[in-house]
Amino acid sequence: MTDTTSPELVDRFDAAAALSRAGRHEEALALWNQLLEPDAEEVARRRREGAPMMSGRFLGVSLMRRAWVLMDLGRHADARAALEATIVEACLSQLTTTELYEYFFSLANCCGQVGDLRAMDRAMTRAIHLAADELGDAARCQLCWHNLMQWGRRAEAWRYLAKECPTAVRFAENAGLARLAAEARSTLAEALERLSR
């Protein structure tokens, strides 16, 4: 990650990201916490040295990456709270389109994990629109629809799936995504069968 933020902070970002990729999530979380919530001594040192503040984009991506580590640790409620924090929302306008997609996709999956299907749907809808309309990325769209159906099945939200799956089928057919179309048809059939019981 590069922007106007100081090289020292970028190095810490890179180190925390490397720990995450290596599966060392507790260590990564500790580094993210040091980066994002410095103690009084660290704040004083940064002021003495005239260290530049981090940019809004750097802060937003760092906060999102910390939430990812919380997800990796199975702390989905904490990750959701981190993603919905006011400070994160204030940074959203400075994220790239890809980062904004990652934000809404992550938030949707946190909401799905904690069983809040309504919030999952809102966030996943945003992610789908960003993937389709802004990024033109069929693979990301397919992943969004797949996860949306997964969370619906997990919650046994058959009415929800009966409403959403026809849209997923149409989208998949228009985008030439045969695997997604098959999954959506199968999920729709399951939902209708469950509702008829």
Describe the structure.
The chain has helices spanning 7-21, 25-36, 40-48, 56-72, 76-83, 86-91, 97-113, 117-134, 138-154, 158-175, 178-196. With 197 residues, it is an all-alpha fold.
Distance between the termini: 52 Å
Order of helices and strands: HHHHHHHHHHH
Counting DSSP E segments of at least 2 residues, the number of strands comes to: 0
Percent helix range:
over 70%
Question: Helical segment tally?
Answer: 11
Q: Main beta sheet: strand number and arrangement? A: none
Parts with pLDDT < 50 across at least 5 consecutive residues: none
What does the oligomeric state look like here? single chain
Silhouette = elongated
Structural class assignment: mainly alpha
